[in-house]
Amino acid sequence: MTSELPKQKTDWTIKDSTDLYSLEKWGDNYFSINELGNIDVHPKRVKDEKLDLMALVNELEGRNLKLPILIRFNDILEDRLERLHTAFANALKKYDYEGRYLGVFPIKCNQQRHVVEELISCGRQWNFGLEAGSKAELLIALSLIDDAESLLICNGYKDQRYIETAILARQLGKRPVVVIEQADEVERIITASQELGAAPLIGIRAKLSSRSSGHWGSSTGATAKFGLSVPDILITVEKLQASGLLNDLCLLHFHIGSQINDIAIIKDALQEAGQIYVELNRLGAPMGYLDVGGGLGIDYDGSQTATGASTNYSLQNYANDVVATTKECCEFNNIKMPTLVSESGRAIATHFSVLLFNILGTSQVPSQVPTPSRKECLSVRNLRETLDTIENASKASELDYSKLQEGWNDAIKFKDDAFNAFRLGYIGLPERAKAEQLTWACAKILIEQLSTKEKVPEELKHLKSTLAGTYYANLSIFRSAPDTWAIEQLFPVMPIHRLNERPTQIGHFADLTCDSDGKLAQFIDNGNVKSLLELHELKANEKYVIGLFLGGAYQEVMGNFHNLFGSTNAVHVRFIPGGGYQLEHVVRSNTKSDVLKFMEHEPEQLLERLRIASEVAIQQGTLKISAAQRLMEHLETSMHQSTYLQN
Ligand SMILES: *Cc1c(COP(=O)(O)O)cnc(C)c1O
Q1: To which H or E segment does residue 275 belong?
Q2: Which of 104, 286, 529, 551 has the lowest CB atom count within 10 Å?
Q3: Ligand 1 — pocket residues by CB below 6 A?
Q4: Bridge partners of residue 530, in order along the sequence
């Protein structure tokens, strides 16, 4: 689907922009548009507590923190954490649940030190813990958790050292639960426990048969990568019993994939897991924890539907279902209700970071009408006539669609004639240029006339995309928004200023990489996808800043160094009530020297080679000394600057 051009109106209000970009639908009260036409951030979802995003950008640039920049709002991160816990607290109360909720953050979602530290310090009031999926993540979790109540869920492939580390950490006063994800892990747990004369807390990950959907649908079912089938669970329990470890089996875990769009899928999984939990109890395991994994989705497009970029449930619906389904199952089977654990990553980390980038330029098809000259070739004369015909036809009070269609068919024919004539050498570049301009001028009139009409012929409908512009973004999507490329994920993208002006252009973004996949050309459209976004015309000497929102989960670490674009600048902003803010952390972007070293190049050696080459050129008289000096200064300075373009 292509986007609709905004309706022709005499003026444009910030309300129009709010609707056009669905800001209120996905913004979750964290974002709004102010009278200046700039986006305001409301870190606590309070209307009067706000920061003007554009003003913030200008102030950061004043501190030499240039675009592109990632802004992390610590208050939003905390707010999300609080809302998750509030939702579960409400649900526990509503259903009189006899047990508590304990959240953990899956570190893989965002491993940045300042992010994890922030979550741990803010989460202490709820004994919030961490989930590690690898040995490196385990090191982070072990060093950061300092609360004996908080859980440290150990997932992922585990070797002997991983397991022994978890056992010893238990003696250190932490609460690590080693989750058996593969059938052979139980043997390693038994060996490690015998070796150390101590056991870890043990969990089992179940491979559910419940259906799933969406991109991560294959996380469940018989072929899922992780988890034990029911027969394997039974064998594992027997082995634990035989080795005296059944008393340490305390947790059942499942994870049916990320961004579950449909609540019905979550309910099915909860019911199935509930039954397995009951059975493990009957087999003599003490149990105590039911860990429902991640999957809590985000409404990226605000459509509240079970489509890819959305969810048909709220955070509260989710918490209610987890609590109610588990309670029902336990009551029916007369067993003690477990502590409920969730590993929600996306739901916590999505909203708090905003990626801002500037536009370096645009390319638009040339559609100005060229001034006539005396001797023009036949195709150009024909095109001028066609343009007149279309212009006149479009002014008629009752539009004659077949006439417009015919005009457009003619325009295409005459353009082809001109191009052929050029190829065969009958006309020169200026005539060919005129033919191109006149054809696009015809298209422009048709689009302007047809964009507000309903019954437009199919062929004319696609015209709009032919006139769309390319906006060149100071960004690498491979570095900063990899999921847009890897799994075609949609994020809300919109200008952060000029929102009181009508966006008169439509276009998509091309990034700085030399890769034709390096583009942003899919945009949210209320449950659908559109390939073009409404944008403003660039103004001379004024920057145009675009925001990519809801990208706080997974994007940073999945990003890569394609074309050697490194990390962007990043700042952690803390809102000061009553106005103002404080930069809690500034993380400078990778320099060119950094990214060269990642690839094992030696920046000093590269410079030295160039210095020698310039000495030779000076000797040979092709390079002046002053020019050589200038060249070396550019190279040396550039080496220590960001990999992005400086504005
Ligand atoms: C990735 C993952 C999560 C996080 O999932 P979200 O959908 O981001 O909440 C939780 N648990 C496990 C085991 C995971 O692999």
Answers
A1: helix 263-282
A2: 286
A3: 106, 108-109, 131, 133, 155, 255, 258-259, 293-296, 343-347, 553
A4: 523
